[in-house]
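pinned: reference chain
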Amino acid sequence: MAMHGHSEACCSVPPSKADYKEKGSYIEIDGMKTYKTGPSTATSAILIIYDIFGFSPQTLQGADILAHADDEHHQYQVFVPDFFFGKPADHSWYPPDTKEKGEKLGAFFQGPAAPPKTTGKIPAVVKEITEKTGGTITKWASLGMCWGGKIVSLTAQSGTPFSAAAEVHPAMVDPKDAERITVPVCMLASKDEDPEAVKGFETNLKVASHVETFGDQVHGWMAARADLKDERVRQEYERGYKILLDF
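pinned: its structure tokens
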């Protein structure tokens, strides 16, 4: 994310890997284990609000792509806090095609993943990271995946600490949220999001934006549900991150 400016990342995003070892390290922010990647001298930072499955290899690989793919033109420090404190949703709950799975997923969204619980933490998280990095960070962007997309919509409104925002395969898409967003926003939807909600969201935006639907990709293709052994998924995973860096 070029903090809404041009980037040459389209030519430099590295090939994604199904078997991936992350490049970063872990620190503690606001009591949460937080993945940190990217050069510590970078003055721009990206806060990733992951999907309900937490620290998946695909999500951490995405963080590394954003941190390192465009080093020559834009450098980023990228942070991924563990908002679920080591207890993310279970992959077996998705898709919620039985009553039991639906109930478990519903309870998770009403409990640990209740949006107000996380949105209230964001300002303190950004402030603490900025302080702990010695004040080198002068500009912030946010990226939300699935559930994290909703958090991004709610924290990109008046008084936001972010200069740009992005959502990939967002959950709980609400066109009313778009009316209150005050910074440039990118939304990459999958075939599983409600197309009318995505269209309404785009229509209601009053800021610079890029909204695109990846029509043959499932919800989660840029995060925990990405099957990177599948050539088509891998291509679209990489293309999605190129778009984010170029935005």
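why pinned: Strands lie at 25-29, 32-37, 44-49, 76-81, 139-145, 164-168, 185-190, 209-214. Residues 33 and 190 are 29 Å apart (CA to CA).
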